[in-house]
Write a structure and sequence with these properties.
The protein is mainly β. Helix content is about 0%, strand content about 35%.
């Protein structure tokens, strides 16, 4: 960033949510042109509407992918512990949806060509939190605010190039 310390939306590549259906979320696959652009961002906007969804937990870097959960309140009561959210998994360097299936979307216990390509899964029974990544990054343990625990089967990470990764909310 040239030492200036200024990071603006104009200096980042936008990614966008392209679909939310059948329990899955999909996003764009826009390239980031480094060094002209300083990174990427993903607004949590669905069908051109802001829903109040937020990222309230720390993101994790797993096998060259950035993994985070979001929280959306399904109630007008801001103190409600119930709601919904998503577990999102993207290429860490570009923010793109990966071009191969990452999660076991058909429930057969394997990640292969019969699974849908997606950027993540939707949780409707409570606000999700990523608790653990285990078994050489092939399982994710997610709990939610209703007390549910979900184990997600996923493809092993691709590694990727190690670079400085920064996660910051832009206001």
């Amino acid at each position: 960033d040239g030492g200036a310390g200024q990071l603006t939306v104009a200096s980042l590549q936008a990614q966008a949510v392209t679909g939310v259906s059948s329990g899955l979320i999909t996003t764009t696959q826009n390239e980031v042109t480094y060094p002209a652009q300083k990174g990427w961002y993903l607004p949590l906007v669905y069908n051109s509407a802001l829903t109040g969804e937020r990222v309230i937990n720390q993101a994790s870097l797993v096998g060259g992918r950035i993994v985070f959960t979001s929280a959306g309140m399904g109630s007008t009561d801001p103190c409600s512990s119930f709601g919904s959210g998503k577990l999102v998994e993207l290429d860490a360097f570009s923010g793109k949806m990966l071009n191969y299936a990452v999660l076991d979307t058909n429930g057969d216990g394997l990640v292969d060509s019969t699974d849908s390509i997606s950027s993540g899964v939707i949780f409707t029974g409570g606000i999700p939190t990523l608790n653990a990544v285990v078994n050489d990054a092939t399982r994710k343990i997610v709990n939610d605010s209703s007390g549910g625990v979900t184990t997600l089967v996923e493809a092993a990470g691709g590694g990727g190039t190690s670079r400085r990764i920064m996660w910051r909310q832009i206001q």
